[in-house]
User: Which sequence fits this backbone?
């Protein structure tokens, strides 16, 4: 399988989706938990965006491996790949928690514990996204 779009590697395109969506979900969930009246407006969008972030990370991993096989490697690229291997799993757990929170909130039974766990996962996943992205930028731009 080729991991290109219009002749460009897919990897840098999908990682930017993760870089935007992970912090966006974190900020949105923070607002929804701080203002319960906003939760009704935000919960579906947050669930969809969290799943989209996880999906983009799942695509970024094999597309990055495909790209790595075509460019010279370096210790920075190896570090980036190592950090990147964990991110899809973090985002899948995060998406599951956000979806569970949104579902419970939508049923009129918002769980503060579930909301707190989802927010903690969001913060961890966003921090990990920053670390992966930074290591990728260093590997490309020095």
Assistant:
């Amino acid at each position: 399988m080729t991991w290109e779009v219009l002749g460009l590697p897919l990897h840098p395109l999908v990682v930017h989706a993760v870089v935007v969506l992970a912090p966006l979900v974190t900020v949105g969930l923070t607002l929804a938990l701080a203002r319960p009246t906003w939760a009704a407006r935000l919960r579906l969008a947050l669930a969809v965006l969290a799943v989209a972030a996880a999906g983009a990370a799942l695509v970024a991993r094999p597309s990055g491996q495909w790209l790595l096989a075509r460019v010279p490697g370096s210790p920075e690229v190896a570090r980036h790949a190592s950090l990147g291997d964990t991110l899809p799993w973090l985002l899948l757990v995060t998406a599951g928690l956000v979806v569970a929170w949104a579902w419970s909130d939508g049923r009129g039974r918002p769980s503060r514990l579930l909301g707190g766990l989802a927010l903690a996962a969001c913060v961890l996943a966003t921090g990990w996204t920053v670390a992966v992205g930074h290591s990728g930028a260093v590997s490309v731009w020095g």
Notes: The helical segments are 10-34, 36-68, 75-106, 112-141.
